[in-house]
Amino acid sequence: MSFLSRGVLALALSAVAMSASAQTVPVVAEPFEPVSGQAGKDVVWVPTPQSTVDSMLELTKVTASDVLVDLGSGNGITVITAAKKGATAMGVEFNPDMVALARRLASEAGVSDKATFVQGDLFEADLSKATVITLFLLPDINEQLKPKLLDLKPGTRIASNSFDMGDWEPDARATSSPCTSWCTALAWIVPARVAGTWQLGSQTLTLTQQYQVVSGTLGTAAVTAGKMNGADITFTVGDRTYTGRVDGGVMTGQGWTAKKTS
What we know:
Blueprint: H1 3-23, H2 50-59, E1 67-71, H3 77-84, E2 88-93, H4 96-108, E3 115-119, E4 132-135, H5 139-150, E5 157-161, E6 172-175, E7 184-189, E8 196-200, E9 203-210, E10 213-218, E11 221-229, E12 232-237, E13 240-247, E14 250-253, E15 256-260
Parallel strand pairs: 1-2, 1-4, 2-3, 4-5
Antiparallel strand pairs: 5-7, 6-7, 8-9, 8-15, 9-10, 10-11, 11-12, 12-13, 13-14, 14-15
């Protein structure tokens, strides 16, 4: 092979090598950005407006002493806002990309010490330490969660963006502003269970209960205006209103005590 031919061959091989090298330059992936309406495990993702988040946390009176769990936490806005109030807040989200995004946003907001996110199924989340539960799920998902929520400690507060809990009427609601969509916040307080028979002094107190609404009889007189607010109970019999607190099988109020018999 001539000197010239060898030179041409070397140039050709060099060009091939440079071309191959160019083709192997790594492509930097764009940061994940969620899209409203994107599919999820149980529901599509739609962002909650900041004003509605604020209303949900106001209705549930979130403070630094609270432990908040957000079911289906998405981009983490509710958890991050609660953490800014000093609450210990955790988001449960099935989509790992969303979890990573929420962690990054929490870090940027300077609340990573208070705001944590776990990848998991919202139906399997441990809620035992929560004092506040927040969610933005569909009504049928809320209905599936309702028995678990009602088993939480009396006084646990629950807030939902827009969607209700079926026949469990909310204790409070608010419309956020400014807001163009998803502007309704609903809140519930888990009631103590008081249905059954109690002995109040020399009389039998028989109570029925539909969530936070209580009715029944004291002796032969009707119980009216019965209401649970967590573990606090109030009801009226005739011209007397009883206000007290439920602790397991005992109710105690000013000047009265009732013990559960069945």
